[in-house]
Amino acid sequence: GSSEANGPLSVGLQSPPRPVTALTVRTWNFPELSSTAAKESRRREYFAGLEETAVRIQRKRGGTILLFPQSRGPGDFENDRPASLRLYRALQARIPAGRLAWIDFPDAVSPFSILRLCARADLLLATRFHSAILALLGGTPVLSLNYQPKSSGMMRMLGLERYAVDIAEAGPETLFPLADGILGQGEGLRAEILERVGRVKEEAEGILRKALSETGFIQP
After folding, report:
1. Going by DSSP bridges, is the β-strand pair 20-24/164-166 parallel, antiparallel, or unpaired?
2. Alpha helical stretches, state H, the chain
3. What is the C-alpha to C-alpha distance for residues 116 and 134, in angstroms, rounded to an integer?
4. Is the dihedral of CA 75, 77, 82, 84 positive or negative?
5. Longest C-alpha distance within the chain, in Å?
6. How far is residue 131's CA from residue 133's CA, in Å, rounded to a whole number?
7. 143 strand-pairing partners
8. Confidence category of residue 14, pLDDT binned at 50, 70, 90
9. Are 71 and 79 in contact (CB under 8 A)?
10. If you average pLDDT over residues 135-153, what whole number do you get?
11. Whole-angstrom distance, CA of residue 214 vs CA of residue 220
12. pLDDT in the model for residue 6
């Protein structure tokens, strides 16, 4: 069983009702804002935006909303469990039983476990940068909520910048049309993502081989 600290652990997800929309969230301090009150207001807007977006997706598309904490430390600021559970519990009052799922991981977990989970989703609303990477590696479409330039930069590198939204602008009026559009594309977007990721992977491997060859670590 799971402890209250880790939250409820959903079972029976071998064949969840589709589409599956997964979410990763995090605590963020919005450093561009100066006052504590403004930061807290923006945090509330961020969570409310994700909550309303998830509800709208489920009401229109059916399927399952899935939350999981990608990062579990170190420290409270990098522990996504409390933030994820906060959103999960808010959604419990608005999404039918059996259509809302929570998956937790041990503190030490292989990234392949998260990759496999993301690959089972039809869409990932990703605040966490590395959850977006793992989803894209499996071809899962990502709607990225950018809290640092690395997130928007990755999406731009893949030619997917149309699916990148600044975390300060993550309201349902912005997120829901993008999410709904992604889900409406079916498998076509997944194939496009895999092709783009494969091309970037080949380019990166070529750069690495060239660098290793020039330094004598491998033979050209």
Report:
1. unpaired
2. 36-61, 81-92, 111-119, 129-137, 149-157, 172-183, 187-214
3. 9
4. negative
5. 61
6. 5
7. 125
8. low
9. yes
10. 95
11. 8
12. 38
